[in-house]
Amino acid sequence: MAALEPTGESPSRRAVTLTDVAVRAGVSQPTASRVLNGSARKPAQHIVEAVRKAADELGYSPNAQAQALARASTGLLGLVVHDVADPYFSAIVSGVQLAAAARQRQVMLSVTLRSPDVEVRCIESFVAHRTDAIIMVGSRMTTPAAVEATGRLTNILVRYTANGGRFAVVGQAVPGADAVIPDNRGGAAALAHALVGEGIRDFVLLSGPAQLTSSADRAAGFIGALRKHDLKPRAVLNAEFTRDGGYESARRAIAEFRPSSTAPVCLVAGNDVMAVGAMTAAREARLRIPLDVQIAGFDDIPTLRDLSPGLTTVRLPLQSMGESAVEFALGGGEPRTTSITGEVVLRESTAWASRKRGRRALATSS
To answer: Which of 32, 82, 317, 344 has the smallest set of CB atoms within 10 Å of its CB?
Structure first.
């Protein structure tokens, strides 16, 4: 037989393979794989050391897919959010990262910008990468396109979970998934009762998109609670769930209702970032908060610590919501659902009655 001619290539001139490492260490390829790809079945310690030394000398990098096969796990956690620039989402992402790191998982992040089609593609990509679990943060839209995309998403998740994947959501339940669900209606209702208790009677809702479930739930909860006091908002203005959305809605409300110290109006925003935009609009109109206009939000995002005056809001434990989603997704067992109750936090932005009394006391003493 003719001898095989050498190819002229050496491990230093091409990608180093597992076979190269096995030859250098003097072991079989399956043995080298068990050492380097994370298998629970490892050979004797002197063999482990020889394989790792050979890999270091050759500059070998383990293949992620091979590691996944050896461990029956990729160690990856897929995370899908609407907008990572929004402090609501970034706080939840922080909780996911902390909990994942504690469980020695790496987080892969995708951002959808509220596009249902992009959301489906993100999920498909994570399934293709064989992530151990997927967490999706954000509520659903009710548009026809979004409903159709949700149907496709459900079919993907059925196959994914049937093959051993785990799926969790933060915001709104999805069939077959673990769920961490904030009580948006209940939190908004509690906020309405608290503001009425402060003596406020005139409200304008600066709501998010009517087709966004969380936005619609918050508006419905607030309006329903006002009815119990024989009140209703003077208007409901829908805009994007952003700072600019709150800013533009507040400008419209200020131009139409002309709030003042003798006819104050409380602007209740669908979330805190909208409320921040509303506060900017009020300052530009030279309105005093809370004497001329009161402003409230929802979520209690971390950046409110630096806001003046302090913003009245509904506090959600955002970071712990992310941590709970990881605990559910990686915990095994039947899908679980937990409801998160918000806490009303009254701050200076709605302290109309107390500020008014303070002004009167000051006038009397002078």
So the answer is: 317
Residue at 9 is within a domain? no
What is the full DSSP assignment across 253-298?
Answer: HHHHH---SSS-EEEEESSHHHHHHHHHHHHHTT--TTTTEEEE-S
Flag whether 34 is in a domain.
Answer: yes
| 78/109 same-domain check | yes
Tokens of 67: 């590691």
Say whether both 171 and 237 belong to one domain: no
Summarised one tens digit per residue, pLDDT across range 5-52 is 334 444 445 567 878 888 998 988 888 877 776 665 678 888 888 988
- Token match 């969380």: residue? 214
Q: Where are the alpha helices (DSSP H) in the chain?
A: 18-25, 29-36, 45-58, 64-71, 87-102, 116-128, 144-162, 184-197, 213-227, 243-257, 272-284, 318-331, 352-365
Q: How many CB atoms lie within 10 A of CB 305?
A: 8
Provide the whole-model pTM: 0.78
Tokens standing for residue 193: 């009762």
